[in-house]
Specification:
The chain has 296 residues and is of the alpha/beta class. It has twelve helices and eight strands.
């Protein structure tokens, strides 16, 4: 997920917003608007935060929360071994899903993140059928007595493959296609990638409300429980924008304030320059300031 993409982000006003039911769902969610969110953080991000002012205290609290998901391909360092049950593996394809499930060191794995994107790490077959790839991974994760929670993390840039002729932004295309809803019926939960509009809190909130509605409606129609984990992506950088640390941290806090009643939690990404050239140098200070501000 930390690999960010260029994309158009201006969401047309009201064109693809789900109607009244979205507001009903949102209203229900808002009734619990003060719950503390859960967090998904890569091990590399945790290590970067630990070396920043105030970082050790932030990391200590993250690790103390059993809901925190730590993304790491291998077992956690010995200093974090007590948190191994919180570890999740992120895979970029169905083949990588199979490999992760077969890996002996993942025998006790609790969570698998299926992060399909439009890039060489995800085969074109999986890009063209993310629902099928995610569903097969989910089935494998629940075979042979395993009960691994599969969280779908579809990138919005998949829409350039799934609906290349759509006239509009990738967010509009994903809403029109019901990307999140389809993936929600093939998994145990969803992470919605909205990092590229996190600097527009109003748009961030309304877009997320629509996706959350679609997720719940799709699962209802499939006779599945609509109450599944839903995360939304945040990042310490917005592609090709240089936003001062304090301003971006304030924007992210507003994003969380507006939406914490809609979701289980957030994926806090600290993208590296090699994975996201347009993001600049990693800035873990944004994540630290955000997490500190939520405790105030």
């Amino acid at each position: 997920m930390v690999r960010m993409k260029k994309m158009m982000v201006a969401l047309g006003v009201g064109v693809f917003m789900a109607p009244m039911m979205a507001q009903i769902d949102a209203g229900r969610a808002d009734s619990g608007n003060h719950h503390a969110p859960a967090w998904i953080v890569a091990l590399s991000g945790i290590e970067q935060m630990e070396h920043q002012k105030g970082g050790p205290e932030v990391v200590k609290k993250l690790l103390a929360d059993p809901r925190t998901i730590i993304v790491a391909g291998n077992p956690l360092p010995s200093t974090m071994r007590d948190n191994e049950s919180q570890r999740a593996v992120s895979v970029l394809s169905l083949d990588k899903c199979k490999a992760a499930l077969d890996k002996p060191s993942n025998a006790g794995l609790k969570t698998l993140l299926v992060d399909l994107e439009r890039w060489p790490g995800t085969p074109l077959a999986d890009q063209r059928n993310p629902e099928g790839a995610t569903r097969e991974c989910h089935e494998l994760a629940h075979q042979d007595g395993r009960h691994i929670s599969v969280i779908a993390v579809p990138a919005m840039d998949l829409m350039s493959v799934l609906d290349p002729k759509f006239k509009g932004t990738q967010y509009q295309a994903a809403i029109h296609y019901d990307l999140e809803g389809k993936l929600a019926t093939a998994s145990d939960g969803v992470d919605v990638q909205l990092e590229n509009i996190e600097d527009k809190p109003g748009q961030f909130e309304q877009t997320l409300r629509t996706f959350v509605h679609q997720i719940k409606e799709a699962r209802r129609k499939a006779n599945l429980s609509p109450e599944v984990p839903i995360y939304v992506g945040l990042s310490t950088a917005v592609v090709n924008k240089r936003i001062p640390t304090d301003i971006l941290a304030s924007m992210l806090r507003e994003d969380v304030t507006r939406t914490r009643g809609l979701v289980t939690g957030y994926w806090m990404a600290i993208p590296s320059k090699n994975l996201c050239p347009g993001c600049g140098e990693p800035n873990p200070e944004v994540a630290i300031r955000l997490l500190q501000s939520l405790d105030e």
